[in-house]
Amino acid sequence: MVSPRRPYGYGWRSSKRLLIATACVAMFTETLLYGFVVPILPYMLEVRLHADPAQTQSLTSTLLSIHGFVTIISAPFIAALIDKTANQKIPLLLSLTVCVAGTLLVALTPTFWALYLGRLLQAIAGSAAWIVCLAILTKKAGTVGGPVVAGVLLEWQGYWSAWSVPLTILVVDIIARLIMIEPSPPTVDSCLENGSPAMTHNGAPAAIENTETSPLLSHQVRNSETCSRDGDTRSAAPASGFYCRMLGDARILASVANTIVHSAIIAGFETTFPVHLRQVFNWGPSSVGLIFFTLQVPAIFFGPVSGWLRDRFGIRYPTMAGWILVAPLIWLLGIPGSLNYPGADAKGHGKAIFILSTAGIGMVMPLILGAGFVHTIIVLQDIESKEPNIFGAHGGRSRAFAMNSVGFNVGLMFGPLFSTFLSEAIGYYYMNITLAAICLAMAAVSFCFFDSGNPQRSRDPSK
Fold first, then answer.
1. Which of 44, 153, 362, 399 has a CA-to-CA distance to 229 between 20 and 30 Å?
2. Is 380 among the domain residues?
3. Do 255 and 278 belong to one domain?
4. pLDDT score at 102
């Protein structure tokens, strides 16, 4: 049989480097866009939409919460559709196109309804892109860049110079997505009657042809394992009970709780920092953006340390330690501007306390970041090792990711609302005390319900 003619530039267009780079740029952009709007929201609301400055805090929390709410609704449906889609090129391309439309609506800010619609489109597109790419490693870079770039460009170069950055990145990523070609999975004919993969004359796995409509980053090894799995034709257990089975496990509930609380705290920072820092220190968008830079950059350097600790001691104890250490640092954030500490104002040590506390949180947060997702994978592997095919022939990884994505966005939805309510009801200082107490409670939950393993050891019993 004659092989179909390969497209122009097939070699470099189907290279793994281009595929990974395109996915990473997509995830960088989606994450950047969530935080990008944070420092410039007060300007958009008060200057472009002429909103009452007294309503800035509540409007900010609503706009940030809607992103999480929409993702909660859309993520499970998107995950189910992607699990059934062999070609993942079209879903990612559609998500980027929708994101461009949403970003333009947010940037133009003609009316309040357009601003809300733009955030809604960004949320749907971001959820789809995350589930398609599964590129969690790019999250940190996007979170760092968004607030910093937005705040500095708004104050130094103007409003549209700030929005030109994410729009340009989106266009570049769409072009890259149109260029790239994805490797295709093997056909049914590539499996022999005994369930083994097709081989060449020298015993190596047979080469697999690729086309423009091939799925993203398919691996021949993975498909070979699928072909040879026990060599039988047993029907997989129905996958409809995945969420009931997983959420009935206390370990999974602890994982989801970790994810929700972590994202809620980060979303609370993004909601309250701009208004609080303007009131206490009279800081503008660029200064607020640099505070987020101070929060996130230490996490980049201490991330490898967190990974080493998890490999060395498992997931339980580093996560518990992270929650314990972050609690007093969050309390310290509330001291500047508090009437209980007159010396910690703008003229005293308030700025130093706030900056050092923020940097300290950035150092400790890697111990917590992603712990819920990692522990979910550990529990999933434990269940599937005891009951193979319980979640279907392809396992439950996509749905596990979607479940944690929903948990993360629950935090993004309730975090701004909760922090705004506490800040206005009892004040910023006591809001931080409340958050610190929640962190200590999460330390106890992690100690009681987290396993002590890691995914690598779960896959390799010899370790």
1. 399
2. yes
3. yes
4. 83
pLDDT at 326 over 90: yes
3-class DSSP state for residue 368? coil
In a domain, 200, yes or no: no
What pTM, to 2 d.p., does this model score? Answer: 0.64
Q: Given the structure tokens 């705290």, which residue do they identify?
A: 265
Q: What is the pLDDT of residue 203?
A: 39
Predicted local distance difference test score (pLDDT) of residue 394:
60
The number of domains in the chain is: 2
Q: What percent of the chain has pLDDT over 90?
A: 17
Q: Which residue has the tokens 């409007």?
A: 59
pLDDT digits (tens, 9 = 90+) for 76-99: 777 666 656 655 567 767 777 887
Query: Of 229, 255, 289, which residue constitutes the final position of a domain?
Result: 229
Q: Are residues 164 and 242 in the same domain?
A: no
Does one domain contain both 20 and 169?
yes
In this prediction, residue 258 carries a pLDDT of 95
Are 277 and 381 found together in one domain? Answer: yes
Q: Looking at the structure, do residues 269 and 340 belong to the same domain, yes or no? A: yes
For residues 223 and 251, state if they share a domain. Answer: no
Residue 356 has pLDDT above 90, yes or no: yes
Q: Which two tokens stand for residue 452?
A: 């002590």
Instruction: Please spell the DSSP secondary structure of 189-251, one letter per residue.
Output: GGB-TTSPBPB-TTSSBPP----TTPPTT--HHHHHHHHHSTT--PPPPPSTTHHHHHHTSHH
Mean pLDDT of 425-441: 95
CA torsion sign, 136 to 137 to 140 to 143? negative
Domain end position, chosen among 168, 202, 229? 229
- The CATH number for 160's domain is 1.20.1250.20
- Domain range for 456 is 238-463
Burial of 303 (0-12, 13-18, 19+ CB in 10 A): middle
Tokens of 130: 């995350």
**Least confident residue range of 39-43, 81-85, 317-321:** 81-85
Does 48 reside within a domain?
yes
In a domain, 62, yes or no: yes
Contact by Cβ (8 Å): 302, 366: yes
d(C-alpha 288, C-alpha 146), whole Å:
12
